[in-house]
Write a structure and sequence with these properties.
3 domains; alpha/beta; Glucose Oxidase, domain 1; binds magnesium ion; TIM Barrel; 8-stranded parallel β-barrel; about 550 residues; binds phosphoenolpyruvate; 8-stranded mixed beta sheet; about 45% helix
């Protein structure tokens, strides 16, 4: 059976299907006897200790590898496992002769129901966390190994409705051969992460995913965007041939990793990486990144229960700055809103979130979020070559306001005696308004970076995550190209750099058009870098 979806991360793979267990552990006994109470209380406490210990090991592993934001989720799960209220509710039930494995599941459900009933969308989503943690404690008591992603011990193709960064973080390196998800678009989390990890992915296959959950083997083509459940021998052979061809192509690209790409006319095009977390920095350098064209800071803020402090942000930005040394690193200020929610901040509900309170609009309205971020960037700039970039700018007033706050933060830090570095300020050109007003914006910017993902959706009035609008989701449209041309002309007149950090920058067929229009830098998922350098070198 063939499932078609969106090709979200190139590459092919065939392997055993892995469906993360969402089923609940099934306790074999509900009741205990009076004389078992003492021993069962003890067993419950030990199970909590073991699970909290496992979770905190995962958190430590993630934190040392630089994935602070994912580590935060597991630290939160440790707290949940050790929650005294949870313990006393379970112990009371054990006292009433319920088995601990059944009691912890029942209490987990009670707590989850309380969370789910909360108005706050973020708190409601915590119902799944509490089920996850209590399920693990129960499984430990039953003697069953923990489920879901940590249980993945053989390299497999993961089939799942959706995948969160926390899920991918739980997968051991090398264990995911491919991803197939019901939800998602090319610009959703799983796609961005899969591309950074170089794992083939097909997303947005829709409810048809149900029909293949029982498959033994799955073949994925993340370039073309389809998956085949239980492929026959011919198909497997064809995939092996494609995989061999791709591996050869990749090996042939190796020599391009560290070249400084120029066109035959001698136009130098810088090729940089888009990063979503600090942990991607070293791999990006290995792929040949000449800098970071886009560091999506919202990933530091998402998937955790609280907001990262100025200090935590300072550490994260400094780590990337240090890893890249003199190479430029563009830190984009928070871009939540649209399809990206920010836990811990009430964004309200909007009828048209993509046309709503997102990017710089939100930052300007929430100095309590914006200022610590700008302070962290300014301080981290002392450790490397950082630049700051504002997302979703629609007019010069927003840029002026943002720059004024940046100046204020700089003055405050200086008066506090803190070390601060120089940072150039740039603007993302991702609203048609910014492209039309590029001339004015260029006068007050040190660089531009064109966000084609949003520029396309706003120019063509086509939701970037709606899989039915694929025809209207390419930058190769005369209206979008005209706006890119206009932006490049304005940048060139002002003598500033103009990059592209939307997905189009990594698409070989778009690269020649972008370079011809005047783009001077391309920023993409790191594994796409060698091929982009080759394409540029052959222009
Ligand atoms: C873009 O819009 O092209 C972009 C790079 O930003 P994001 O995908 O994070 O919205
Ligand atoms: Mg954008």
């Amino acid at each position: 059976m063939k499932l078609t979806g969106i090709g979200a991360s190139e590459g092919v793979a065939v392997g055993p299907a892995f469906v993360p267990a969402t089923d609940r552990p099934e306790p074999e006994r509900d009741r205990i006897t009076e004389d078992e109470v003492g021993a069962e209380l003890q067993r419950f406490r030990e199970a909590v200790e073991t699970i909290a210990g496992n979770l905190s090991e995962t958190a430590d592993r993630l934190r040392t590898s630089g994935s602070g934001e994912e580590a935060g989720i597991f630290e939160f799960h440790v707290e949940m496992a050790k929650d005294p209220e949870l313990a006393s509710a379970v112990e009371e039930r054990i006292g009433h002769l319920e088995s601990p494995e059944a009691a912890v599941l029942a209490v987990g459900e009670e707590f989850a129901a309380e969370y789910a009933a909360m108005d706050d969308e973020y708190m409601a989503a915590r119902a799944d966390d509490v089920r996850d943690v209590t399920g693990q404690i129960s499984a430990q008591l039953i003697g069953r190994s923990i489920s879901a992603f940590e249980a993945l011990k053989t390299p497999s193709v993961v089939l799942s409705y959706s995948l969160a960064p926390s899920d991918t973080a739980r997968i051991q390196k090398g264990m995911a051969l491919g991803f197939v998800t019901a939800e998602g678009s090319r610009t959703s989390h799983v796609s961005i992460m899969a591309r950074s990890m170089g794992i083939p992915a097909v997303v947005g296959v829709g409810p048809k995913l149900d029909r293949v959950l029982g498959a033994q083997t799955v073949a994925v083509d993340g370039g073309e965007g389809y998956a085949i459940a239980d492929p026959d021998a011919d198909t497997v052979a064809e995939f092996e041939r494609m995989s061999g061809a791709l591996a050869e192509e990749l090996a042939a690209l190796d020599e391009y990793r560290h070249v400084e790409a120029s066109t035959s006319e001698g136009r130098r095009i810088e090729v940089a990486a888009n990063l979503g977390s600090v942990s991607e920095a070293h791999d990006a350098l290995k792929w040949g990144a000449e800098g970071v064209g886009l560091f999506r800071t919202e990933f530091l803020f998402m998937e955790r229960d609280d907001l990262p402090s100025e200090e935590e942000q300072y550490e994260a930005y400094s780590a990337v700055a240090r890893a890249f040394g003199e190479k430029p690193v563009i830190i984009r200020t928070l871009d939540v809103g649209g399809d990206k929610d920010l836990p811990g901040v009430d964004q309200g509900s909007e009828e048209n979130p993509f046309l709503g309170w997102r990017g710089i609009r939100m930052s300007l309205d929430t100095p309590e979020l914006f200022e610590p971020q700008l302070r962290a960037i300014l301080r981290a700039a002392a450790n490397g070559n950082l630049k700051v970039m504002f997302p979703m700018v629609a007019d010069i007033g927003e840029l002026e306001a943002a720059k004024a706050i940046l100046q204020k933060c700089r003055r405050e830090l200086e008066s506090e005696g803190m070390d601060v570095g120089e940072v150039e300020t740039g603007v993302m050109i991702e609203t048609p308004a910014a492209a039309v007003c590029a001339g004015e914006l260029a006068e007050q910017s040190a660089f531009f970076s064109i966000g084609t993902n949003d520029l396309v959706q706003y120019t063509l009035a086509a939701d970037r995550s709606n899989e039915r609008l694929r025809r209207l989701q390419s930058a190769d449209h005369p209206a979008v190209l005209a706006l890119i041309r206009r932006t490049c002309e304005a940048a060139s007149a002002a003598g500033i750099q103009v990059g592209v950090c939307g997905e189009a920058a990594g698409e070989p067929e778009m690269i020649s058009k972008l370079v011809e229009l005047g783009v001077t830098e391309l920023s993409m998922a790191a594994p796409q870098i060698p091929r982009a350098k080759k394409v540029v070198s052959e222009l």
